[in-house]
Amino acid sequence: MLRILAQRSDGYHALQSCFEVLPWGDEMTFFTEKSQQPSVTICGFKTLALTDNIIYRAAELLKPFIQAPCVVHIKVNKKIPSGAGLGGGSSNAAATLKTLNTLWKCRLDATSLSALALKLGADVPFFMTGQSALVTGIGEHIRPMRFFSGYILLLFPPLPIATETVFNHPGLKRNQTPLPERLLRDSNFWINDCLPVVLSEFKEIKKLFDCCYPAMRLRLSGTGSTLFALFDDKQTALKQQKMVSQYCRNRLLEI
Ligand SMILES: C[C@](O)(CO)[C@H](O)COP(=O)(O)OP(=O)(O)OC[C@H]1O[C@@H](n2ccc(N)nc2=O)[C@H](O)[C@@H]1O
Ligand SMILES: Nc1ncnc2c1ncn2[C@@H]1O[C@H](COP(=O)(O)OP(=O)(O)OP(=O)(O)O)[C@@H](O)[C@H]1O
């Protein structure tokens, strides 16, 4: 669910959103090398320049607090597609802040780390927690909560979506009412205000959405491009996975 409640004067949007942690993600390995000059190297990205990588930017934010300098080599096995609305970069940044805080003995507490996380992106503070949560504000108010258990089928349309494209769209509904507490776990109310914009702007995604309807109720993750469906039982989930495999890459997870 992603409800857009308002647009703030700084352009950011006030949200109410359910964030579910998935048992799947990028793998990151950190190796240290003795040195009095702290720095990081990153491998696992083909085209992204070092300084554009959110992992590098996370490391830079910690530099003023380093008490035990060393060089850290970070190896990333990227599994989450880029621009998928699954928080690939944001989760990399959160893992980097937490791990370097320990390796460099920065000794920042959870509150200080969350403040640094928010500088990197609105959903980085969520990924610091490692727990599913109701997220409000622009992403900084996080209340741990579970919403769903069962099977989630992720569908990956073959195109990335830049978050800004959706948030800057003139057609985006920006005056949604927040869902009351008692309805938060009712999946019938899990609308995503970004879905109409994504379906109108990206014809390939609209086509995929229509191919699966009415067999599956597809939902949008964040600002896309990932679509997903929820199932209570494994047999139905596997049947639908077989059906969508003819259209796009996908992954079935039990949560
Ligand atoms: C909406 C979500 O995609 C839900 O998963 C996330 O909250 C976005 O989080 P994120 O990728 O960490 O976002 P940021 O890197 O901070 O922002 C990217 C762009 O999205 C827009 N943005 C983001 C979050 C937010 N609450 N309001 C916004 O308007 C802004 O235009 C911003 O320039
Ligand atoms: N470590 C990283 N992993 C992935 N993308 C990164 C990384 N660092 C910088 N980027 C840039 O961030 C952009 C958004 O990528 P990302 O995969 O985080 O999108 P997303 O999952 O839609 O993000 P979110 O859901 O947090 O809005 C990419 O186009 C890429 O250039």
UniProtKB/TrEMBL annotation:
The signal peptide stretch is none
**Which residue positions are annotated as catalytic?**
123
User: Is Kinase one of the keywords UniProt gives this record?
Assistant: yes
List each copy of the GHMP kinase N-terminal domain by range.
53-130
Asked whether the keyword Zinc-finger is assigned, the reply is: no
GHMP kinase C-terminal domain boundaries: 172-249
| Pathway(s) of this molecule | Isoprenoid biosynthesis; isopentenyl diphosphate biosynthesis via DXP pathway; isopentenyl diphosphate from 1-deoxy-D-xylulose 5-phosphate: step 3/6
Q: Which reaction does it catalyse?
A: 4-CDP-2-C-methyl-D-erythritol + ATP = 4-CDP-2-C-methyl-D-erythritol 2-phosphate + ADP + H(+)
User: Which residues are ATP-binding?
Assistant: 81-91
Annotated GO biological process: isopentenyl diphosphate biosynthetic process, methylerythritol 4-phosphate pathway; terpenoid biosynthetic process
The record ties this protein, via Pfam families, to: GHMP_kinases_C, GHMP_kinases_N
Which class of enzymes does this protein belong to?
transferase
Q: Which GO terms describe its molecular function?
A: 4-(cytidine 5'-diphospho)-2-C-methyl-D-erythritol kinase activity; ATP binding
EC number of this enzyme: 2.7.1.148
* InterPro entries xref list: GHMP_kinase_C_dom, GHMP_kinase_C_sf, GHMP_kinase_N_dom, IspE, Ribosomal_Su5_D2-typ_SF, Ribsml_uS5_D2-typ_fold_subgr
Gene3D superfamilies the record matches: 3.30.230.10, GHMP kinase, C-terminal domain
Q: Which UniProt keywords apply?
A: ATP-binding, Isoprene biosynthesis, Kinase, Nucleotide-binding, Transferase
Q: Which family does it belong to?
A: Belongs to the GHMP kinase family. IspE subfamily.
Function text? Catalyzes the phosphorylation of the position 2 hydroxy group of 4-diphosphocytidyl-2C-methyl-D-erythritol.
Identify this protein by name: 4-diphosphocytidyl-2-C-methyl-D-erythritol kinase
Origin organism is: Marinicella pacifica
